[in-house]
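In the previous chapter we treated chains in isolation. Here, by contrast, the input contains two separate entities that must be folded as one system, with a combined length of 986 residues.
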Amino acid sequence: MAKELKYFTKRSEDYSKWYNELVVKADLAEVSAVRGCMVIKPYGYAIWEKMQRQLDDMFKATGHQNAYFPLLIPKSFLSREADHVEGFAKECAVVTHYRLKNDPEGNGVVVDPEAKLEEELIIRPTSETIIWNTYKNWIHSYRDLPILVNQWANVFRWEMRTRMFLRTAEFLWQEGHTAHATREEAEAEVKKMINVYATFAQDFMAVPVITGVKSANERFAGAIDTYTIEAMMQDGKALQSGTSHFLGQNFAKAFDVTFMNKENKPEYVWATSWGVSTRLMGALIMTHSDDNGLVLPPKLAPIQVVIVPIYKDEAQLKSISERVEPLVEELRKRGISVKYDDADNRRPGFKFADYEVKGVPVRLAIGARDLENGTVEIMRRDTLEKETVGFDGIVDEVVRLLDDIQSNLFKKALAHRESMTRTVETYDEFKKEIEKGGFILAHWDGTTETEEKIKEETKATIRCIPLEGDTTPGVCMVTGKPSARRVLFARSY
Amino acid sequence: MAKELKYFTKRSEDYSKWYNELVVKADLAEVSAVRGCMVIKPYGYAIWEKMQRQLDDMFKATGHQNAYFPLLIPKSFLSREADHVEGFAKECAVVTHYRLKNDPEGNGVVVDPEAKLEEELIIRPTSETIIWNTYKNWIHSYRDLPILVNQWANVFRWEMRTRMFLRTAEFLWQEGHTAHATREEAEAEVKKMINVYATFAQDFMAVPVITGVKSANERFAGAIDTYTIEAMMQDGKALQSGTSHFLGQNFAKAFDVTFMNKENKPEYVWATSWGVSTRLMGALIMTHSDDNGLVLPPKLAPIQVVIVPIYKDEAQLKSISERVEPLVEELRKRGISVKYDDADNRRPGFKFADYEVKGVPVRLAIGARDLENGTVEIMRRDTLEKETVGFDGIVDEVVRLLDDIQSNLFKKALAHRESMTRTVETYDEFKKEIEKGGFILAHWDGTTETEEKIKEETKATIRCIPLEGDTTPGVCMVTGKPSARRVLFARSY
């Protein structure tokens, strides 16, 4: 069983297969009986809960409040904003009836044709329309602004090709929807929230990200501007990890939401929306994990430290437990989540393999000889390094190690990204380099036409126009036309 | 505006109208554009979040973990358990298509008839079926049991008559779904969880409840036994506030979920499920609130203390703020959520009315004369009593007052329930008493027939067979047949 746990596809053999197996073996999620939908298992959900809690604290610290809006959206609402419906119509789950009945012909339960809705309802793919229809009643004067609201919810987009966490028909997310009196204030909000996401990704997930603006082609349906954070996975592909949209007055116009300004004149309200989803789980898994299983940054690990006793008989276990109990207490006092696994139906070797696959950052093992010698074996999951250290002072050592693992994971991911980021000058060079994976910084003439040609010929897209980095102008690698600055290309999830 | 806030229907005039107005005026929720669905506004959602956090802690303390299962359920799953589908078929929202398209005749966006699902999907009205279909893969041996899982989710039941929080088509809830090797263990779980709900209702919501078992007629569709907590609203009607179901092996049989027991023989798994929902918001509102607005128990109030400065000019405000700031800090250190409302666009009278309507438990007001005298005015929301007390020692006084309000609300609600609970001997007496509202304890012969006759003739139902109280046998008030013990009748929400 221990072997079975550890035995799975290596990243170098088939990265995609490795990912799918890891998600299942680490007990994070599994495919469900409903096409495109997954079951998030307790261990996977515990990681998501830690993410949620941290993000929620950050949203509240920046002045936002949570609320809840309906799951179902009248079809006509979706149609009000032209780009928006164009973007989502093809992947809408549609509710058409509100009742089942017994089939008069005895074929079990069937949809009752008499219970047909006058207007179909769509399961929200995102909530701009229902929310702006609601804001219409909340906003009358400049005194009602800003509205800074977030919603934690499930959404549904009928995707044809799905992968657990990365792209599922139903997913869990948060969507912030804010309303402002001025363009400047809305734009500042959009930037503030993409920075909150970048901070969360880097400081908690230990995932380095590049913050930038999407090209017109990759914008959210209905947005004027979309800001994004882009992470690089170990296979060199990009993963869009969070977006923040400046919606201008598009939704205010679609839903006729105006306010009286200080001069008592009506104006349309300015809008933003921003979201991250369970897709972040995919980013977390693919950034750090290795051929032995999951690797978790300590700040998001449901179990940060596991302690495994190694014993021959009850008496030994008792002695070990007596030594370990005050340690567990002391670690908990320091805010560390610790599990003492003294279950007697699994052998130490199995436990080691299991916690390795589950990515527990620090493992302590303590046996009879350790008791005699006043030692303990400590293993760090990121490097798999083992060391035998003195039992006294182990608390400080664990604290130090957790910090070190957190920063080491970030550094490692950053070094990997840097090693796979190149600057190219010509389109030939680009085509050669893109085959090797990674990020490519290159000049582009700013047109959708060129972007689409590149995508068609190389499967690479513009991930973003970075907010930072080299801003020297140049000429487009494809057309030779002027380019304002280099932009970031990659193949992506 | 202050007047407008305070001006609403009195409970004695029209309790139902009072409730609807209060929900809106206290900024808790509003009806949405989607039939039967509500928007939970930030202030209402903040109360729900406090409930969630507390309940979640209690679930985890009793060994449960959270997970997440799909929103949509294949129609055929629902049909597997006969009673279950019978109970829910009439209120199912049905997804039949997965795509919209532009109408070729130019009528905007329409459902694409080519994107019809082979099998319809139901928005979960509850998740037993999809979860037991999943558990089938999780459970092989007795070593895989118990499974103690909870899910926080939205569910959908197409109700014809809806009221905010009390009965809405979509609502938020948690649903625990556990799997056990033995009947005894499952039954113990069912009781444990109804007791968790009772503790939460009484100790946090300050809502006294009667715990008992439902009659066959009122059981959850698919359960062997349903335990319930029943609360009494101020109008004397009962509100079912939480239920815990012993499902026996019904769902294990429907989904063929067996395990190998210690003797290596296959057995069907035993199941429980239990849930509370945003309906608890309705119980909270209707138990404590008064003609001036919401009254909240301190343990669930998003703002426990509000401090309002009363000043004539900037200089006065500055002096007051200097006095108040260390107080705010001290209160926060004691774990109290406090708001210092120094906004200058609303007058003190308006603020007073607003926080009264919103049910903030303790209000402090401080003006220039208080500064001179070293005093502060303190108001408690439950009794509306005002007192001027010394500024020194105010922190202890606030802590004491919050405790006192919490226990006073419970005592008041309990006294109200006791004053409206009677024991009757004859059916004539019953019919007279039920018109006055409240709970009635009476003998019943245990048959569905008698129960339905009583319901038809009096609109009263058996709320539960209480677990505690008088267990003396007697004769049924309607049929004169033997009765094992008195049961609890009431009209209900």
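The mean pLDDT of chain A is 96. The first strand of chain A starts at residue 29 and ends at 31. Compare these points with the single-chain example from earlier in the chapter.
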